[in-house]
Amino acid sequence: MKIAKYFLAILFLMATAQIKAKPADLKASVNAVVKSYLNIKNALAADNSKAANDAAKQFTAALKEIQQDQMDAKQKDTWTKYAEKLRFDGEHIIESAEIAHQREHFSSLSANLYAVLKAFKDNDAPLYQQYCPMAKKTWLSELSTIKNPYLGKKMPDCGVTKETLKAAK
Predict the structure, then answer these.
(1) Which residue has the higher pLDDT, 20 or 129?
(2) Contact 112, 78 (CB under 8 A)
(3) Is 108 helix (H, G, I), strand (E, B) or coil?
(4) Is pLDDT at 10 greater than 70 in this prediction?
């Protein structure tokens, strides 16, 4: 009898191991995108184009994990509008070794991600939309203090917080 129980337990474990893991929920996927975006921002603020390349690889991989079947109609519309633009800018940051070119794509990446996050309202932590008057561009930050990704080490604190995206409840 004990052998039969062990045998059934082994069969059960084998069967459950073959079941595919459920994809991450939408909120977790969105926050993985945010985390990798912030890594790009911090790399650019530190004038580190190689780190920006690496973070952009994480960003484009995280984009692929977002499941549309978990979105409501408004989110699907927003995602349909911005997903390809986000991927495009992420790929250009990956492919370029020139920090100026990376920053050009980071500008549109920032604007597009802001639109997605505003519609989804899934960010785990507050995010600050910040603006650089010298570059006339915005970005998102996990910090209320300014770490400018467009001017880097030349003028790291140039900017102002324009809006706060509150953490999702």
Answers:
(1) 129
(2) no
(3) helix
(4) no
| Those residues with Cβ within 8 angstroms of residue 84's Cβ, 6 or more apart along the chain or in another chain | none
Three-state secondary-structure class, residue 71: coil
Q: Please give the distance of CA 141 from its chain centroid, rounded to a whole number.
A: 12
Angstrom distance (rounded) from CA 17 to CA 156: 50
Tokens 């549109």, residue?
Answer: 108
4-31: burial string, b at 16+ Cβ within 10 Å, e else? eeeeeeeeeeeeeeeeeeeebebeebbb
Q: Mind listing the pLDDT tens digit for each residue in 88-143?
A: 999 999 999 999 999 999 999 999 999 999 999 999 999 999 999 999 999 999 99
